[in-house]
């Protein structure tokens, strides 16, 4: 007799107590509901996602995790407008070698694993905008060596590690606007650390208060053309005005397109916000910008740059007088490989306006460079300075010698000891000046002794400045006075010298 057969499931259910038979189905149902959320639901191109060839779009599907089972041939994956708050390393367990566009905007994403992009190394476009990212850690984008465009705008980023973009060597456009960045990321555009392909950096609408003005001035035009920093609380300064005025004069897109959005805060307690391009008026009276000319010296080798707004353009030059520059000719100027013009052994006739014509498939640009040539060599300036220095030293030495001569020479008159003076000779009205040579004969010495007499007019009224060597001065004075009273004039002695004023020194 055949025994009835039982299925395994029925046997297990019968083996369980009656009151617990409902427990096992409940556990299975809960596991079915929980497991897809833990590991990500399997991709379903008919219900939750739209699949079109190599494009997979799962936008606005209220996903909290990235679906699993994404085809390896996927080129574009759109996961925007969902609720994926964390992007862990295992969000895709298989490599996606053909994925070049990944869209994760509007997800509330606040966590990025350092290994989140290990399996998508061929990405060229990554959209992480409009999320809740707060910082960019070191080497976070290092696996993305092929990345060209990175969108990080409208997040809450306040900290960017200086090595966050290391390894992203092909990045062309980086959008960091509408964040909380307070430091300008100079390392992204500085010559020795910048990515050579980066042509657009947008740090507008952040919290940057100061800019490295001097470093920004020397950047190539193709970088300045795509460097946007408007709508930041910058402090007003004339250097900031000069920088933007130069960019506007060059018609750079970053200055022309957002001219009215470049504002700054005036110094002072009121914190008044004004337009940067108004600083040349009443606010700070900044000097109007004017393009400076190139300067050169005779026999100097000079290089003129054709600083275009785009890279990799074909460039040709003309010299003053619209003379084309032809390499290999007899001209002293030649066009280098980077498009700049080299002038060897500059001459006076090389002065004038040089024109660079830059052309590409979609853009043409003309740049004028005015060259001024000084009429001396660059070493002549040093020689002129040396001559001026020598002249100055000579003048100072002459002044020192004159001072020494005036104040350090030996005494010859008033400080010498007196010899053979009588008591009456030291009167307050006369003094002795001896010019007698020390080695002359006695008779000649006696003749050379002379007196300088200062005669007071009160004592010698009517004398008219005459002196007598006879030794009887009182008698002569009386006679002279009497003669004057009678209207007669006494003849002067032959050896006397008349003086106009009575107190004028007279040599006797």
UniProtKB/TrEMBL annotation:
<dbReference type="InterPro" id="IPR000372">
    <property type="entry name" value="LRRNT"/>
</dbReference>
<dbReference type="InterPro" id="IPR013783">
    <property type="entry name" value="Ig-like_fold"/>
</dbReference>
<protein>
    <submittedName>
        <fullName>Adhesion molecule with Ig like domain 1</fullName>
    </submittedName>
</protein>
<dbReference type="InterPro" id="IPR036179">
    <property type="entry name" value="Ig-like_dom_sf"/>
</dbReference>
<keyword id="KW-0732">Signal</keyword>
<feature type="transmembrane region" description="Helical">
    <location>
        <begin position="388"/>
        <end position="408"/>
    </location>
</feature>
<keyword id="KW-0130">Cell adhesion</keyword>
<keyword id="KW-0433">Leucine-rich repeat</keyword>
<dbReference type="InterPro" id="IPR031283">
    <property type="entry name" value="AMIGO"/>
</dbReference>
<dbReference type="Pfam" id="PF13927">
    <property type="entry name" value="Ig_3"/>
</dbReference>
<feature type="signal peptide">
    <location>
        <begin position="1"/>
        <end position="40"/>
    </location>
</feature>
<keyword id="KW-1133">Transmembrane helix</keyword>
<dbReference type="Pfam" id="PF13855">
    <property type="entry name" value="LRR_8"/>
</dbReference>
<dbReference type="GO" id="GO:0007155">
    <property type="term" value="P:cell adhesion"/>
</dbReference>
<dbReference type="InterPro" id="IPR032675">
    <property type="entry name" value="LRR_dom_sf"/>
</dbReference>
<keyword id="KW-0812">Transmembrane</keyword>
<keyword id="KW-1015">Disulfide bond</keyword>
<dbReference type="InterPro" id="IPR007110">
    <property type="entry name" value="Ig-like_dom"/>
</dbReference>
<dbReference type="InterPro" id="IPR003599">
    <property type="entry name" value="Ig_sub"/>
</dbReference>
<keyword id="KW-0677">Repeat</keyword>
<keyword id="KW-0393">Immunoglobulin domain</keyword>
<dbReference type="GO" id="GO:0007420">
    <property type="term" value="P:brain development"/>
</dbReference>
<keyword id="KW-0325">Glycoprotein</keyword>
<dbReference type="GO" id="GO:0016020">
    <property type="term" value="C:membrane"/>
</dbReference>
<feature type="region of interest" description="Disordered">
    <location>
        <begin position="482"/>
        <end position="508"/>
    </location>
</feature>
<feature type="domain" description="Ig-like">
    <location>
        <begin position="269"/>
        <end position="368"/>
    </location>
</feature>
<dbReference type="InterPro" id="IPR003591">
    <property type="entry name" value="Leu-rich_rpt_typical-subtyp"/>
</dbReference>
<dbReference type="InterPro" id="IPR001611">
    <property type="entry name" value="Leu-rich_rpt"/>
</dbReference>
<keyword id="KW-0472">Membrane</keyword>
<comment type="similarity">
    <text>Belongs to the immunoglobulin superfamily. AMIGO family.</text>
</comment>
